[in-house]
Amino acid sequence: MRFAACLTLCFVPLTGAAAEARYWTIESGAELLAGETAGLAVDSEGRLRIAVSAELAAEPEAPNLWAIAAGRGQLFLGSGNDGQLLAVDASGQLEVLLDAGEPEIHAVAYGPDGRVYAATSPDGQVRSISAEGEVSTFFDPPDRYIWSLAFAADGGLFVATGGRGRLYRVAPDGTQRQVFESKDTHLTSLAADSRGGVYAGSSPSGIVYRVDPALEVFAVHDSGYQEVKALEAAPDGGVYAAVVGTAQPGPAPPQAPDQGGSTSAGVTVVVSAPETPEQGAQAEGVAETPAPPQLSPAAQPGAVLRIRADGAVERLWFSAQQAPHCLALSPDGVLVGTGDEGRLYRVRDDHTWSMEGEFPGRQITAISPTGDGGLALATSNPGRIYRLSTAAGQQGSFVSAVHDAGVVSAWGRLTWEGARAADGVVSLESRSGNTATPDGTWSDWSPPHTDPGSASVSSADARFLQLRATLKAAAGSSPTLTSIRAAYLQRNLPPEIVSITVYDAGQVFQKPMAVTPEAPILGLDPDAAPGAAAPPTPALPMGNALFRRGLRTFAWQSRDANGDRLAFDIEYRAETDERIRPLRRGLEDPVFTWDTSMVPDGRYVLRVTADDAPSNPSRLALRGTRESRVFLVDNTPPLVSLQAGDAAVEALVVDAASPVRRLEYSVDGGPWGELHPADGISDSPEERFSIPLDGLSPGAHLVVARATDQLGNVSVARVEVHTP
Questions:
Q1: Which of 172, 173, 167, 116 is nearest to 146 (CA)?
Q2: Quick one: 284 and 178 in the same domain?
Q3: Residue among 721, 722, 601, 717 at smallest CA distance from 663
Q4: Residue 451 shares a structural domain with residue 505
C-alpha cells in the first residue's frame, strides 16, 4: 500500500547570515503530511511510526464503491455507475449478487435475518438478497433516492431518502411507516443507537436529528455545514458526525482548544469530494425532485463533531479543505475516511489525530468492521477493497517533499530524534539536484545512515534536497521518528541594488513618530562628514513629505539571494567626471538625504553599493553596485533685472543652471500675481516678462518681482516707478 501526503517545510536560520548554518527541520504532523509515506502512520504530535498492515482484498471494475457491510464471512459492496451489489470472500473472490439495472447502490446493510439489503438509486428501492441468492423488493418508497440504511436493535430497518428528505421504518414483517419528513430535501446518513433509536443527518442544512424508540424526532444539532456525510453512534449514547461543505452562518460547533502543535486544527490539504451524478430517467408517477446533494469541488471544508448525549458538541477534527466521507468506531474515538488523497485518519476524543494510511483511491467512501477484529475499507476513483489487520507492519518509509535552499548550498550534519524500539532500525538517505522536481539529473540516493550522532548529508552541493527515512520494526514493536534536521550552508551570492529613486530637489521626508521642535529628516545626518560611518538606525517607513531647499532624497531597493544583512556605501560623481567621491559609509537604511549645498551646481550621479559583510567574514563578503540617473544640483537663485517704463516694467530673469519656472510680482505690497513670459512658456534659463503698470494712481509706487527657477531657488528684485 502506498501513502502520499503534503508537507510544510520550515528552515530556521540562526541569524540570516550566508556564512552561518541554516537548518531544514521536519517535526510537525502537518510537515510530515507534506511528504510521501508508505506503510507509516503520522500523528498530530509529529511522530512517524509503522502503521497497521493493509492488503488489497479485491479490485472490482466499478469506479466507485459507495457502501460496505460485513456478514457470513463476506464483504458486501454497493457500487456506482454500474449499480451492482458485490460479495467478496476471504480469498478475494468477487461475486455479483445483484445487478440492479440502476446506476447507483448508495447503501448496503447486513440484516439480523442473514439477508443483505441494498438501496438503489435513482429509482429508490430496497432489495433484499438471501444467502441462497434469492432477490426480492423489500421496500419501494415514492422517493427517488435512498442514501442510507440502518437496522435498529429490534430488527426494524430505518431508510433515509432524498427528494423529500424522509425517514421510514420498515418492520421485519414488511410493515412500513413514515417517521418524519425533514425540512431538507435529503436525509443523507443514519446511525442506529443501542437503545433502539436512530440518528439521522440531512442536506443541505446539515442538521443532526435523533429519533427515539417511540419514533419521536428531535433536532440535536444544526452544524452550519451543508451535509452530514456520515454518522456513528457512540457507546455513551451520543453520536459522531462527519460534516462537509462550506459552513453556513448560524450555530456552529465551538472551536476545540489547541493542544499544542496542530493537534486540534487537523490538516489542511487541497482536496475535492466525490460527486454523485444524477443519472437515469424520472420514475413514473413521481414529481420532479431536486438533484442529490452535491458539493462544489472548489471548496470542501469538513469536520468531525462529537455530539454528546447531553447535547454538548465538540469539534474533534477540522480541515479547511479536506472532506471526511465515512466513519467507524475505534476504542478512543472514530476512524475517518477522507478524500481527495484517500487517507484514513484516527480521530480521538482528546482532539488528537493520526493519519493511519493513504490509499490509491481518491476517496475512502466506506469503512466496516469485518467481525474478526479487522476493518475493511472501500475506495472510489478507482473502486478498491482493502483489509486492515490490528497488527503493525514490518517496515515503512517516508520521502520528504523537496526542500529549496534558495541557492546552491553545501550540506552538513543530518540528525534525527525518536524512540528506538528493541532492535528496531531508523535509517536516513538523501539526494540532491538543481531542478525543483527530482529527475535524472539528481544524484542517486546516498547510502543509508543509521547513527544520528555521526551522520551527514553526503549528497552533492545543490539547491534542492530530499530526504528518505526507513523504519523497520523488530519483535512486533515499531521505532518512532519525531524530528529530522539537515544543516546546510548557502553559497554566498553578491547583493543587488534593484533600483534607485531620485526625488525632486527639496523633497524630503520626516522621520516617523519624531516629536521634536525641528522635524528630523529621514536619511539626513547633518553632523556627519563625507566618508564618516553613519550611526545605525532601524529601517523606518517614510513620514510626511516636506520641502527643504538644498536637500535631495534618494531611496533604493536591494535584494540578496542569501537573505544577508546589508550595509550601504554612498558615493557621487559629476556627470562628466570619472572620479568617485565618498558621501557615507555603512548605512543600514535604504534611504539617504544629501545636503547638496556642499557641491557646485551641475549634473551629478549617485552610486549606491550594497555590502553583505555584516553577515559574512571579510574574505567571503560580496558587493553589488548601481548608479542613479543623472540629476541636477542647482542651489544658485536666478538673477532678476528690472527696467521701469511708462506703461510697464520690463523684467529679465537669467538662471545659470536650470530653466526659469515662474515670475511673480506685487505692487505696493499687494497680492502676488503671476506672469507668463514674452514667448508664452517658461522653459529656458533666460526669460523676459512685462509687468503692467496700468490702473495705478498718480505718484510713486514700489514694484517687487520674485523669480523661481526649476529647482526652487528664489530671488527678489525691486524698482520704484512714478505715475504722472
A1: 167
A2: yes
A3: 717
A4: no
CA nearest neighbour of 377 among 333, 327, 319: 327
Residue 651 belongs to a domain with what CATH number? 2.60.40.650
d(CA 457, CA 545): 53
Q: Please answer whether residues 463 and 30 qualify as being in contact, where contact means their C-beta atoms are separated by less than 8 angstroms.
A: no
- The Cβ of residue 591 has, within 10 Å, a number of other Cβ atoms equal to 21
Give the separation between CA 143 and CA 141, rounded to whole angstroms.
Answer: 5
State pLDDT tens for residues 91-129. 889 999 999 889 999 999 999 999 999 999 998 999 999
Number of domains in the chain: 4
CA 186, CA 206: separation in Å to the nearest integer?
A: 10
User: Who contacts 445 (Cβ-Cβ below 8 Å, separation ≥6)?
Assistant: 429, 430, 431, 468
4: Cβ–Cβ under 8 A, 6 or more apart, which residues?
36, 37, 341, 358
**pLDDT at residue 127, as a whole number:** 95
Residue 266: which of 153, 351, 376 has the closest Cα?
Answer: 351
Q: How far apart are CA 400 and CA 366, in angstroms?
A: 29
* Single residue among 370, 392, 414 that ends a domain in this structure: 392
**3-state class (DSSP) for residue 201:** strand
The CA distance from 86 to 103, in Å, is 14
Q: Is 350 left (phi over 0), alpha (psi -120 to 50) or beta?
A: alpha
Strand partners, 642: 651
Pairing of strands 94-99, 84-88: antiparallel
Q: What is the pLDDT of residues 332-388, one digit of tens each?
A: 999 999 988 889 999 999 999 999 988 888 899 999 998 777 899 999 989 999 998
The answer to whether 387 and 375 are in contact (CB under 8 A) is yes
Query: 544 with 656, same domain?
Result: no
Amino acid at residue number 80: G
Query: What letter would DSSP give residue 374?
Result: -
d(C-alpha 140, C-alpha 123), whole Å: 9
Residues 514, 517, 518, CA angle at the centre, nearest 5°?
A: 75
Beta carbons of 398 and 46 less than 8 angstroms apart: no
Residue 1 lies inside a defined structural domain of this protein: no
Answer for the pair 316, 304: CB distance below 8 angstroms, yes or no. yes
196 and 117 in a single domain? The answer is yes
C-alpha grid cell, residue 325: 466521507
Predicted local confidence at residue 527, as pLDDT: 47
Low-confidence ranges of the chain (pLDDT < 50): 1-16, 249-299, 515, 527-540
- What does each C-alpha distance from 283 to 100, 144, 177, 225, 436 come to in angstroms? 15, 7, 21, 30, 54
- What's the pTM? 0.67
- 270 and 364 share one domain: yes
Boundary of a domain, candidates 633, 666, 683: 633
The total number of residues shown for the chain amounts to: 724
pLDDT of residue 513: 60
Q: How far apart are CA 483 and CA 344, in angstroms?
A: 22
The one-character DSSP state at 614 is G
Alpha carbon separation from 117 to 154, 199, 283, 424, 539 (Å, rounded): 16, 19, 21, 47, 72
What does the alpha-carbon distance between residue 691 and residue 650 come to, in Å, rounded to a whole number? 6
- pLDDT for position 55: 87
List the domain range (segments joined by +) for residue 539. Answer: 496-633
Q: Is the domain of 182 the same as that of 253?
A: yes
Q: How far apart are the first and last CA of the chain?
A: 112
Q: Is residue 3 part of a domain?
A: no
Residue with cell 555590502: 611
